[in-house]
Amino acid sequence: MSNAKNNATAISTYGLGRKPSIWENLSNEKYFKWILIAPLLIVLLVFMFYPLIYCIYNSFLQGGVSGDSAFIAFENYKYMLRDRSFWIPFSRTAQVAVICIFFELLIGLGLAVLWNRDFKGMNLVRGLVLLPLLVAPLILSLVWNFLLEYNIGFINQIFVTIGIGRIKWWSLQMALYTICGITIWQWFPFSALVLLSGLKSLPKDVFEAARVDGATGWYTFKRLSFPMLSPLIIIIVLLRTMWLVRLFDPLYGTTRGGVGTELLDWMVYRTTFVYFDVGYGSTLAIMSLYLTIIISAILFRQLIKALNTDK
Amino acid sequence: MIKKKITNEEIGFWIVTIIVLIVVLGPLLWIYLTAFKSASDIFSGSLSKQILFTPTLENFKRLFTEYPFFASLFNTIIISVVSTILVMVISLPAAYSFARWDTGGGHLLFVTISTRMFPGVVAALPFFLLFRNIGLLDTHIGLILLHMYFNVSFATFLLYGFFKDVPVELEQAALIDGYGRIDILRRIVFPLVLPGIAITSAFCMIWSWNEFLFAFLFTRDIARPMTVLISSFWGSIEVQYGTMAAGVAIAILPILIVAWVMQRYIIRGLTFGAVKG
Question: Does A43 sit within 8 Å of B152, measured CB to CB?
């Protein structure tokens, strides 16, 4: 196929039996494709490599921004490995990611199975359920912070009315789970609709056959639907992991990293922008970057695979 | 036609569906209610006052007069529109190149999209110091550049998927017919990916509209967008719930409208094109 395309180019460029002009040379696809991509590469180079090199360089230094820094080789990294204020937010971030993804998938799968039928108002339900998905997480966290306020919050008022009593949503024991809850609330429709689109695209005849053979609903789900959905589940898990390790905005809107809710990015932010410890902050940032590179390496191979098998 | 009898299963189905809708939409609805409540109703602490109240515009009045609300709304619009245009200028040709010639053999596309994972806080400090030195802190251009960097890889990847949907045979036929490269792009490829361009632009604008970390760190006053202004209502000593609700109500309205209009494409956009939705 690409041979035919090359021939076509050859005809259009050289077929007239004269020397090609500069423009024709440039529009030869050998150069043309790189010309098209050049601006993107320049932007990425400037905006990616400058901060990266800056951070790697500073992670070997001790001290702040004022210039009185000293070269200390790997001391920052050594310190980090022993630093509890690194490992606690680190494991907390992992905890948040696991909790959120688990419940989002569970609720999402349930709703996808429920909605996988023809019913009146399907489009309306889908449109409504998608509404909060694109609203800024920061704004939603502010709204939830207000709704979950101890005295005047709407949720606690309902709980008092129905006799459960007020709940301290932002206490040391609860706050992290409250933040998980807010995140799950915003994102379970995403899982539900991705999985629903998967269920709708499954071949009908296989399920017919299973039903004729007398398979129960649960058995069909376990042996047919679930395995066929697993590529989509992988995509959801990877995408959500990628977003959740970067969780920052909901913290700003609610606890500001207090009451046992400090996560990875908040800690980097606090070290660099509150304490202005550039050296150690850079070290933490580099570490955070390594972690995400590992996740994204898995993630985007899968995504590109998914895009290409589709064709 | 015989009217179908409503089964128990159907009743259960609708009960669950309606509960889900209440859970999802309740907080949004509540924001619009609170925006029209007086301070005494908000702080009254009785449930009846939360639902039955005399609507008032005092929150909006205070928002418009005591805070630079329209200035920050204007900042948000300027920054999201200009950064989206820049993103498109860079991403469109690149995405076409990736889709048509597999430039860089897939590795380059992989590198491009991996940059989306680059943590914002890592980029923030070097750029903060750089911008301070060249005077870009608290300017529109500074934030526009950062939002461009933040969106460019996402837009390239999403557009790549849309360009892939255009059959190569169309272009080959046009080449044989003697069309130039630019003509092919303008007359054949561009009209076919126009919906894709619209969707990608909408996503970039929304991400820029919603972006908080860079906006919060890089602006103070002149270029301060709406997310930062609204978040400041809760940081202050006396929490301005009513004003905040009014601000949120206006800030999220365009997002809700766009989400409703392009509901068919939201899943596709959020999964970088991997799930068609």
Answer: yes
Q: Which residues of B touch A11 (CB under 8 A)?
A: 175-176
* Residues B45 and A157 sit within 8 Å (Cβ to Cβ): yes
CB contacts of B34 in chain A (<8 Å) are 146
**A28 and A172 share a domain?**
no
Could you give the ipTM of this predicted complex?
Answer: 0.86
What are the sequence ranges of the domains in chain B? 8-60, 68-270
The pLDDT value recorded for residue B174 is 83
- A197 and A93 within one domain: yes
Q: Which residues of B touch A104 (CB under 8 A)?
A: none
Asked if B25 and A119 come within 8 Å (Cβ–Cβ), the reply is: no
- Do the domain assignments include residue A107? yes
Q: Do the domain assignments include residue A64?
A: no
Q: Does the beta-carbon distance from B276 to A198 stay under 8 Å?
A: no
B259 burial (CB, 10 Å; 0-12 / 13-18 / 19+) is buried
Q: Which of A18, A41, A58 is the last residue of a domain?
A: A58
Pair B120, B214: CB distance under 8 Å: yes
| One domain for residues A37 and A99 | no
A11 touches chain B (CB under 8 A): yes
CB contact at 8 A, A266 and A248: yes
Same domain, A164 and A272: yes
Test mutation, A47, A166, A308, chain B, max B CBs within 10 A:
A47
Same domain, A108 and A172: yes
Tens digit of each residue's pLDDT (9 = 90 or more) over A89-130: 888 988 999 999 999 999 999 999 888 888 888 889 888 998
Contact B119 A132 (CB under 8 A): no
What pLDDT does B206 receive? Answer: 92
Q: How many domains does chain A have?
A: 2
Identity of the residue in B106, B119, B259 whose CB atom sits nearest the CB atom of A134: B259
Shared domain for A188 and A247, answered yes or no, is yes
Mean pLDDT to the nearest integer, B82-103: 90
Identify whether the C-beta of residue B255 lies closer than 8 Å to the C-beta of residue A135: yes
A290 lies in the same domain as A202 = yes
State the CB neighbour count (10 A cutoff) for residue A19. Answer: 8
**Fold that domain B68-270 belongs to in CATH:** MetI-like fold (1.10.3720)
Co-location of A17 and A111 in the same domain: no
Query: Mutual orientation of helices B107-114 and B140-164 as an angle, nearest 10°?
Result: 140
What residue of B is the nearest CA neighbor of A299?
B114
Instruction: Give mean pLDDT, residues B70-90.
Output: 93
- Secondary structure percentages of chain B, helix, strand, coil, to 5: 80, 0, 20
A163 vs A299: which has the higher pLDDT: A163
Last residue of a domain, one of A58, A75, A95: A58
Residue A6 domain boundaries = 2-58
Between chain A and chain B, the number of residue pairs with CB atoms below 8 A apart is 283
- Classify each residue of B48-87 as buried b or exposed e, where b means 16 or more C-beta atoms within 10 Å of its C-beta: ebbeebeeeeebbebbeeebebebbbebbbebbbbbbebb
